[in-house]
């Protein structure tokens, strides 16, 4: 008589894996990986300067003009020194940041974190490259104006430098820097707005000045040729006299020998 076994079959390993998979998934979802807070590069100055000069960022442009005017008034009109002005600006900035951070904490917001601000190496290299290009262009322009045979460009360059020297004799360095800031914030905007008219007017002035220069050159050409001829005759006379003196000295040396 055969005996039937009542023992249950062993549990399959796949069920145990299925049963244990849920807590593993739960533990993985309970602790998500923290995302790093993005840093902010504050050194990209070329685009910011271009936008400020062209008044694309009106708040920054107005703040720059207001800051330049305030610094000029404080140093020139009220007679403050640079260290005094720098100390007051530093105290004002520290107080503003302190109050801003405390207001954030009182409102239950996260405190300000300035440690993420940095100046990248690319921004420093870009600023240095732009400065080097500006210096190279200035030196190259100086040599081009000096070596080029266009008298109009040469005359305009000399006249501009002369006017700058005359203006510098009436103003100090700080006033000149303030004038440059004001001109830099106004002239490019006006030029971009009225570019076609300014180019047309400049072309007319160039054509008229060249016509005046050609007329003056034609009138002065006879005087110039006469002066050149006189200089050549004087040079020939002096050369003959020098040759005669050399020959006399040689003869005296021969006699003494």
Structure keywords:
two-stranded parallel sheet; mainly alpha; elongated; disordered N terminus; 2 strands; 257 residues
Main beta sheet strand tally, sense and closure: 2 strands, parallel
Overall geometry comes to elongated
What ranges have pLDDT less than 50 throughout 5 or more consecutive residues? 1-8, 12-32
**Count of extended strands:** 2
* Average of the residue pLDDT scores: 77
What percentage of residues falls in helices of 4 or more residues?
Answer: over 70%
* Rg calc: 40 Å
The number of helical runs is: 8
What's the N-to-C terminus distance? 161 Å
N-to-C SSE string, H for helix and E for strand:
HEHHHEHHHH
The SS-based structural class is mainly alpha
Strand content: under 5%
Strand order of the largest sheet: 1-2
Subcellular location: Endoplasmic reticulum membrane
Keywords: Endoplasmic reticulum, Membrane, Transmembrane, Transmembrane helix
Domain Reticulon: 49-257
Region (Disordered): 1-43
């Amino acid at each position: 008589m055969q005996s039937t076994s009542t023992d249950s079959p062993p549990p399959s390993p796949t069920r145990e894996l299925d049963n244990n998979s849920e807590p593993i998934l739960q533990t993985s979802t309970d602790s998500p990986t923290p995302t790093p807070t993005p840093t902010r590069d504050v050194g990209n100055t070329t685009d910011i300067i271009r936008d400020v000069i062209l008044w694309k960022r009106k708040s920054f442009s107005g703040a720059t003009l207001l800051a330049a005017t305030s610094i000029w008034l404080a140093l020139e009109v009220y007679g403050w020194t640079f260290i005094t002005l720098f100390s007051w600006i530093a105290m004002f900035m520290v107080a503003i940041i302190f109050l801003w951070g405390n207001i954030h904490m009182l409102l239950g917001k996260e405190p300000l974190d300035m440690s993420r601000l940095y100046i990248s190496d690319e921004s420093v290299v870009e600023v240095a490259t732009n400065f080097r290009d500006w210096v190279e262009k200035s030196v190259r322009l100086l040599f081009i104006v000096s070596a080029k045979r266009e008298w109009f460009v040469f005359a305009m360059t000399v006249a501009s430098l002369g006017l700058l020297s005359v203006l510098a004799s009436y103003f100090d360095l700080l006033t000149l820097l303030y004038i440059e800031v004001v001109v830099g914030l106004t002239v490019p905007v006006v030029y971009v707005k009225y570019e076609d008219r300014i180019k047309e007017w400049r072309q007319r002035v160039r054509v008229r000045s060249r016509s005046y220069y050609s007329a003056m050159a034609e009138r002065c050409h006879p005087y110039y040729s006469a002066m050149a001829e006189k200089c050549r005759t004087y040079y020939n006379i002096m050369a003959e006299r020098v040759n005669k003196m050399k020959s006399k000295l040689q003869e005296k040396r021969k006699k003494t020998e």
